């Protein structure tokens, strides 16, 4: 069995600094005779050891010493926004955290179709382990989900164009759309959607596309009771109404991250809940 000696450590450091992806380095090591698990551990450690570049490292803002500076919201002004030929209503705008609530982003027919085509493809949702970067099934996220590839079909492509137009954020910077389903008593504990910069596992995920900068959560059904998206640090909650959405931004041009965007999915008290999530990156993704 091969061991990761000093020469291989150096090879890893050089290639991480050159911007190689974790996957390509793991493949190269496996080809060179390393066991798959050993290659993965060595590559993840190499990303964790990567020296922080103060010019490019994201930092979580501190309300006292380094308050978050809000860039202008890229969503158009006004009460009605025409997004790729659909009129979307604005219900609420909040400046701190930077957040907009919409109605009518999707039609009733689009919501139903997205639910029906997802129903049979659901898998238990995962979250990113902050230490390893692995996707783990954990108790504080009791939903099931399905990912759609960007531009997977006509409906997905249309929704993606509409989202890009509404949010003024490039379509290529979006992760694939994800449809999620929560049964009664399902919930998602409060968390940040950005990858915490001080936790090594995030480096694996930011290697492609950089940090997450914003999230759009679209509600596909009316929830009979509970299931709001809650922002505990802001004292705000958004009720799930079919076709509506909440959009919030958490990284500015100086790469500060906004801790006021802590958010969760409240427990579903009656009925079930369907949403579609778009996580957006700072650069092209995928
Ligand atoms: O289901 C929600 O309301 C919810 C809450 C928090 C979804 C997400 N986060 C997410 O998809 O990131
Ligand atoms: Zn979230």
TrEMBL record:
Tell me the protein's name.
2-oxoglutarate-dependent dioxygenase
InterPro entries in the cross-refs: Oxoglu/Fe-dep_dioxygenase_dom (IPR005123), P4HA-like (IPR045054), Pro_4_hyd_alph (IPR006620), Pro_4_hyd_alph_FE2OG_OXY (IPR044862)
Keywords from UniProt, A to Z, are: Dioxygenase, Iron, Metal-binding, Oxidoreductase, Vitamin C
Q: Which residues does the UniProt record annotate as the domain Fe2OG dioxygenase? A: 173-282
Instruction: Look up keyword Oxidoreductase and say if it applies.
Output: yes
Cross-referenced Pfam families: 2OG-FeII_Oxy_3
A molecular function (GO) held by this record is: dioxygenase activity
Q: Which cofactor does it need?
A: L-ascorbate
């Amino acid at each position: 069995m091969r061991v990761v000696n000093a020469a291989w450590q150096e090879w890893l450091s050089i290639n991480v600094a050159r911007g190689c992806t974790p996957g390509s380095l793991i493949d190269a090591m496996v080809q060179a005779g390393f066991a798959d698990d050993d290659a993965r551990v060595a590559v993840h450690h190499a990303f964790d050891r990567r020296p922080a570049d103060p010019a490019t490292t994201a930092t979580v803002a501190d309300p006292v010493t380094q308050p978050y500076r809000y860039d202008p919201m890229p969503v158009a002004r006004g009460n009605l926004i025409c997004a790729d030929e659909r009129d979307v209503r604005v219900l609420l705008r909040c400046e701190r955290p930077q957040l907009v609530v919409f109605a009518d982003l999707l039609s009733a027919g689009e919501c139903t179709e997205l639910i029906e085509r997802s129903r049979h493809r659901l898998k238990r949702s995962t979250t990113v382990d902050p230490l390893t970067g692995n996707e783990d099934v954990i108790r504080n996220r009791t939903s099931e989900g399905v990912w759609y590839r960007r531009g997977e079909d006509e409906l997905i492509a249309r929704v993606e164009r509409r989202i890009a137009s509404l949010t003024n954020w490039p379509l290529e910077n979006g992760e694939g759309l994800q449809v999620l389903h929560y049964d009664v008593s399902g919930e998602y504990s409060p968390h940040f959607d950005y990858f915490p910069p001080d936790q090594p596992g995030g480096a694996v995920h930011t290697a492609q596309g950089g940090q997450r900068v914003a999230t759009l959560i679209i509600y596909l059904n009316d929830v009979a009771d509970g299931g709001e998206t809650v922002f505990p640090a802001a004292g705000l909650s958004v009720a799930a109404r079919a076709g509506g959405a909440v959009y919030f931004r958490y990284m500015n041009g100086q790469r500060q991250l906004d801790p006021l965007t802590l958010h969760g999915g409240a427990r579903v008290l009656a009925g079930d809940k369907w949403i579609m999530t778009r996580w957006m990156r700072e650069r092209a993704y995928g």
